[in-house]
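User: What would this chain look like folded?
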Amino acid sequence: MIAHRSTVQGDAQAAGRLSSAPRPRLVSLDLLRGLAVMGMILVNAAAGMFYSVKAPVFPLLLHASWSGLTLADLVFPAFLMMVGVAIPFSIARGRADTVGRIGWRTLRLLLIGFVLSNLYWFADFGSGAWRLFGVLQRIGLVYGACALLYLWLSPRVLAIVAAATLLLYWPMTLLPAADGLPNDLWVRGHNFVASVDRVLLGAGNHNYVKGPEGYDPEGLLGTLPAIAHGLIGVLIGIFLRTRPERGASVPLAAAGAAMLVVGLACSIGFPIVKDIWSSSFVLVTCGLTSLALAALHWAVDGRDHVPGGWPAAVALAFGSNAIAAYVLHMVTSDMIGWDLMLLPYRATLGILPGQVASLLPVLIYMALIAWAMMWLRRKGWFIKV
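Assistant: Here's the prediction, encoded as structure tokens.
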């Protein structure tokens, strides 16, 4: 669905007459969502250079193999928290069709995600096993659960649900593995959460990580703390709706710092592991994302114009059509391995450090995606999934 700018503004003005209607989105929200999806594309493209082209890549642009945290591990959780923050700004309570609209959007995200996760399998059934989960599937499940809980529960109860989920998830990961593998949270795949993916999805054949220690980083049980992750975003969104422009920056930064400290303390016993979305991972990444959102909220919200020049304009273009940007990336990701795209890398490999040279095709690829997003924004087109 493509919504034109004037239609969106008209809907927002009409909704503004209802006390339960959402307020227009904050510029800081669109900016951070845009930066997050740009980061997701950057990380995936860099991984393509590393794994497909065998090019040297800065380690921060690659995911931690298991426990630990790199820049690459921050972008998806930042985007997921923005999904939660946007819910109070985009969903109006009291509409008879709200539940149906949430359900239909969730289903669309799941279906598109399944197709994108299995493009090669759809083209050739003999190319390997299909994959059930994926990034858009997780976004869809988190969005659907958080949106419905936002409709049905008070902020206080939402906070209790999020906290209880994170607390209970820790002992759940310590249960004996469902397939008998020794349990050790510090060893890749050796935990109850990963074992459920292996048992559920045919000995791991339909998981992203294959083999007897395989699992899916967007797997079934890991969706539970991801929902808590989204609920933290919902609570922040509710808070931002009730505070004057730029007035929420300090308390939001304080909350972010508190989550960061608590998450780091918890990581002593419950390691920071993106692939099972550990509770410490949720708190640390939500803390860092909250600090970034607080800084952007102070810098750009409530101003007559958005500072930052063309970099801010590019980030806003990505943020306005974030899912469209990610889908476009997924269907064009093979471009990073084209001989034409690799010409700058090969031409500069002996002149520039290898890690710098490998960034050139990545940046050219991202510039092409950015051109498409800027074109959509100039047209006033917003593709709604």
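The mean pLDDT is 90. If you want, I can go into more detail on any region.
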